[in-house]
Design goal:
- The chain is an alpha/beta fold.
- Helices cover about 30% and strands about 20% of the residues.
- The strands form five sheets. The protein has a three-stranded mixed β-sheet, with helices on one face. A three-stranded mixed β-sheet has the order 3-4-5, with no helix packed on it. The chain has a three-stranded mixed β-sheet with strand order 6-7-8.
- A hairpin with a 4-residue loop joins strand 6 and strand 7.
- It is globular and about 45 Å long.
- The protein starts with 9 loop residues before the first strand and ends with a strand.
């Protein structure tokens, strides 16, 4: 295993307390849709999709810790946005807490969850005070991390402040690679919608980039799949490499990409995935994607 492994076998997920489209995030998230019909029906469908996805991870030998969301936090199913975990240079664990743009997302940083995580992650960095300055950095939504090579890719948006990204990189010993995007007349709200990074393969939506410098940098360390805005809209960029144990003994790098994302890829792109991954975990989560404007990667908090 690399001194700085790209992926982990342990994932935290959060079953929503009341899932629906979050009106406080629609101004920055172009991929959400307003609620249609009864909220209870939307929520029930989302919970069913969540549970099937969670079980798929476990069936592939991924260790899953399940937590429970609150009714007043419609986006807390996307639990990778307020916290991240890391391994320090001496392999000790670290937890980082983040400032969130929407008030009803700021309350996702719950005291009970922080205390639960602090049992393992006693080294804590907390950037949440920057909310008072209206500076936001929404965790691994804002920073797509090449953990092996210690590079943080950062798509600028209202949810990822340049100064905070630079500060994070300085404190965590990562190179900062910022870049700009435009789709539907505004920046893509999160970096992890634009791109994903595995140990040797990465994917990125090149069509939304204002220039190709970020692809040039990414190509120095990875084989790269490029995809279109239409493919990004189907969330193929919102993917995550995890470690599974299919036989209970042998670790395997697997890619998590929703069924919509995977089905949006062409044959050549799928063939490239097959060169690196024998297992692709592809949950069907249409309700979560349609109303939440996020997908599989957003639902997974990596526990290192």
């Amino acid at each position: 295993m690399s001194k700085n492994p790209q992926s982990t076998n342990h994932i935290m997920v959060m079953e929503p307390g009341l899932f629906h489209a979050n009106p406080q995030t629609m101004a920055t998230n172009s991929y959400q849709h307003e609620d249609e019909g009864e909220l209870s029906s939307i929520h029930e469908k989302a919970v069913d999709e969540f549970r099937v996805f969670r079980d798929m991870l476990a069936e592939n030998g991924v260790v899953v810790t399940t937590t429970k969301g609150l009714p007043e936090s419609p986006d807390d199913i996307f639990c990778n946005n307020w916290v991240s975990t890391h391994l320090n240079e001496d392999s000790s664990p670290r937890m980082v807490l983040y400032p969130m743009l929407a008030p009803n997302r700021q309350i996702e940083r719950r005291k009970d969850l922080i205390e639960f995580l602090e049992r393992t992650y006693k080294d804590v960095q907390d950037y949440s005070e920057y909310e008072a300055e209206e500076k936001f950095l929404e965790s691994t939504g804002a920073l797509c991390l090449d953990r092996v090579n210690r590079v943080a890719y950062h798509a600028r948006s209202g949810r990822s402040h340049d100064d905070l990204a630079k500060l994070w990189c300085e404190k965590n010993d990562f190179d900062h690679v910022p870049f700009d995007t435009e789709h539907r007349g505004k920046p893509v709200y999160h970096t992890d919608v634009v791109m994903w990074i595995g140990t040797k393969l990465a994917g990125i939506c090149s069509e939304c980039l204002t220039d190709r410098s970020v692809i040039d940098r990414l190509s120095t360390t990875h084989d790269v799949i490029e995809f279109t805005n239409e493919q990004m809209e189907n969330f193929c960029g919102n993917s995550l490499q995890v470690i599974g144990y299919k036989d209970g003994k042998t670790p395997e790098e697997m890619l998590v990409m929703s069924a919509a994302g995977y089905n949006a890829l062409n044959d050549e792109q799928k063939a490239k995935l097959d060169e690196y991954y024998s297992t692709i975990i592809s949950p069907k989560i249409p309700t979560i994607e349609y109303y939440g404007g996020g997908s599989a990667r957003c639902m997974l908090l990596e526990l290192f």
